[in-house]
Each structure stands twice: as structure tokens, then as C-alpha cells.
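Anyone up for a design puzzle?
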């Protein structure tokens, strides 16, 4: 009599464990393929493209991928360093947390002269010794602000892998994760520079006319993102910058004798950081290489009574107004209205519709903690 072979029964525990192994294996393969896809995309698909009507030469850089340079303009330290530390950490494979590949980005900080970022002054190793050694004292409303910006760009372009340059304040917060922001910036062949004509404010001085024609005078947000060729132009400019240095002064107190002399000399408190880069790029015929908008969201409020000069100030985000619904509202913005030019700027990157803003300001520590606790900076969703 032939004896049939018997199969050993498989325990319930063994079946569950086998199923889990299959799930782990599938997720590992999926994650690996996704990472390979993202690396391929950043190397091949995200190379700077030519812009219609312009000639932006392809840039060569060492390494596998172009970098985004994050340029922080700070008063002293970085109070939101814990949030940026979270931002620079990304999850590649699902089962462990990996740090953002520093081949993709670099960090530069303009701070108070002599201030050093180390274990005692920052909670994030991404900022260790990233301060400029040639920083200057910056006075709001004077040319020293744009001089500090130029110092940041000058240091950053020394690394030829840096292909995009983003200027940020010490109160800026990212609205998306690193991967989404990286792809957004690298895939566009244009700079993002808020730039428009404004005839309501008397900031232009006729003393500039020999260097800067009045029809080329532009205004816009200080917070820019520029491609490498534009960063090099800003750093190497000596003509337009000199005009701002000479004729843009901080106005003395209104009604004083110094103020009377100031205006008699046709000087202007022209707020260089809101005009210099916009005017320089316009004078250089590069408006078709720009998306004329900023990537940093700011809400402005006006102060002053009818007897006082009115001034505009950015609204501060606190814990109360930085929740998921508030952030989602910013992310859903897809156009910007420019009343002075009677135009609406629909937000695109490389001719594709995109959310208008990648960053926002001004955030308090409490608001930044809200972002981190709600994992709002870890979402890559567009809306």
C-alpha cells in the first residue's frame, strides 16, 4: 500500500508572518523604485530648460544633481531652526527616517558680524558654521540690506552645483516638504521675482536717471528665488548697485532740518531691497526669464491715524492662526492680482499651473511648533 506524503499544517501565526513579509517586500521595492524615479527625474527631467524668446545656456555642474541654495538673512540667530531641521529631514524608505540628501541643497546665513552657528547657538546641525565670515551690519531701508543679499549670493555661487538660490528671512516657514519644493524650483527654468510698476510711491530719484531710466524702475518683494545666471548678474553688477548706494538713503525724521535738506537734494528713501533686483533684471532685458511673483506669502496691514504717516507691516502668524485650515488656505492660492498694472498673474512653473507660494512669513516660534506638530510641512499636496 502506497503511503501518501503528508503536508505539515501551516500555523495561523506562520501565515500572518508570511503575509507581512510579502507586504514589507512589496513596500521596500516600491520605495526603492520611487527613490530611483526621483533621482532620475531630478537628473534628467529637471535640467534647466530653454525659455521661449530667450537664450538660457544649459549649465554644467559637478555631481549627480543640481542644488538649491537656501540663503537666510537673519538679525542674529535662527529662532525657527527646529522647524527647518525637520524640513531638511525626509523619509526615503518607509521603515526608517533618513536625512535629506545634502547633495540636493546647501545653506548660507548672513547674521550679525561675529555670530557663529554651533552646538551652543542652534539646535540643528544643518546650520553649523554656515554663517558668512564677511557679514556686515544691516540697517533696514538702506543699501546695506541689498549688500548683505549680494554677499549671500556671492558665497553661494562659489559652489557650481548651486543652481537655484532662495532668499529667506529668520521668520520664514516652508509650506511643503523638501522634495516638493526642490522639484518645484529645479523644474522651472525661470527666476521667481515679484516685479511690477508702481507710480503711487515717490521712491525714484531723478538723480538716478543717468544710470536707471525711470521707465525701468520696478518694485517687488524682497524674497526672491533666482536661477544661477541671474545670481551671477546680481553679484557682478557694480553700476546699478552703486546708484542705489549713492542715492537711496534712509530719510531723517519728518519735519527736521535734515529732512528738508534730504528732499532738497532730491534723495529718496527708496527701500533698496524692494527695488534693486527687480530693476536690475528689467534693465538687463531679462523679464522674459522671470515669473514676476514671489514664492513667499506675506499678509500686510496698514497702521497710522489720519494725522500720521501710514506704514505697512507684515502680519505675524501665531499659534492661533497657523492651523491646518489657515495653511491650506495659503496653499490654495493660484493667482496674484497687481492693481497698479491691472493684471492678474496666474501662478505657473515651466508653463504648468502650480500653487503660488512655497513659503510664508512672519512665523513666531509658537506658530512654527504648530506647523511641526500638525506635520503640515510634511505634506506634498498642492491644495
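Challenge accepted. My sequence:
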Amino acid at each position: 500500500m502506497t503511503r501518501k506524503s503528508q503536508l505539515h499544517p501551516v500555523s495561523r501565526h506562520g501565515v500572518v508572518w508570511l503575509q507581512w513579509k510579502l507586504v514589507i517586500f512589496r513596500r521596500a521595492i516600491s520605495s526603492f523604485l520611487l527613490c530611483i524615479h526621483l533621482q532620475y527625474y531630478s537628473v534628467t527631467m529637471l535640467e534647466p530648460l530653454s525659455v521661449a524668446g530667450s537664450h538660457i545656456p544649459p549649465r554644467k555642474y559637478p555631481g549627480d544633481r543640481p542644488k538649491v541654495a537656501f540663503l537666510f538673512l537673519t538679525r542674529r540667530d535662527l529662532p525657527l531652526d527646529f522647524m527647518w531641521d525637520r524640513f531638511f529631514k525626509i523619509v526615503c524608505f518607509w521603515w526608517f527616517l533618513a536625512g535629506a540628501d545634502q547633495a540636493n541643497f546647501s545653506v548660507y546665513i548672513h547674521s550679525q558680524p561675529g555670530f557663529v552657528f554651533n552646538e551652543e547657538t542652534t539646535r540643528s546641525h544643518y546650520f553649523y558654521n554656515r554663517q558668512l565670515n564677511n557679514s556686515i551690519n544691516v540697517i533696514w531701508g538702506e543699501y546695506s540690506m541689498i549688500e548683505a543679499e549680494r554677499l549671500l549670493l556671492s558665497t553661494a555661487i562659489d559652489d557650481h552645483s548651486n543652481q537655484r538660490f532662495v532668499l529667506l528671512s529668520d521668520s520664514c516657514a516652508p509650506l511643503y516638504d523638501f522634495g516638493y519644493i526642490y522639484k518645484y524650483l529645479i523644474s522651472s527654468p525661470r527666476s521667481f521675482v515679484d516685479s511690477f510698476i508702481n507710480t503711487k510711491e515717490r521712491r525714484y530719484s531723478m538723480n538716478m536717471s543717468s544710470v536707471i531710466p525711470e521707465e525701468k524702475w520696478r518694485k517687488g518683494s524682497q524674497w526672491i528665488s533666482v536661477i544661477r545666471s541671474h545670481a551671477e548678474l546680481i553679484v557682478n553688477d557694480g553700476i546699478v548697485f552703486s546708484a542705489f548706494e549713492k542715492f537711496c538713503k534712509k530719510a531723517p525724521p519728518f519735519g527736521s532740518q535734515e529732512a528738508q535738506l534730504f528732499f532738497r537734494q532730491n534723495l529718496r528713501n527708496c527701500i533698496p531691497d524692494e527695488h534693486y533686483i527687480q530693476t536690475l533684471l528689467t534693465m538687463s532685458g531679462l523679464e522674459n526669464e522671470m515669473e514676476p511673483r514671489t514664492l513667499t506669502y506675506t499678509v500686510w496691514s496698514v497702521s497710522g491715524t489720519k494725522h500720521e504717516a501710514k506704514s505697512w507691516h507684515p502680519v505675524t502668524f501665531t499659534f492661533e492662526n497657523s492651523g491646518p485650515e489657515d495653511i491650506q488656505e495659503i496653499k490654495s492660492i493660484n493667482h496674484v492680482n497687481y492693481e497698479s498694472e491691472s493684471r492678474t498673474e496666474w501662478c505657473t512653473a515651466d508653463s504648468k499651473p502650480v500653487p503660488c507660494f512655497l513659503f510664508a512669513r512672519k512665523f513666531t516660534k509658537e506658530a512654527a511648533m504648530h506647523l511641526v506638530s500638525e506635520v503640515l510641512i510634511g505634506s506634498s499636496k498642492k491644495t
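A detail worth pointing out: The chain has a mean pLDDT of 79.
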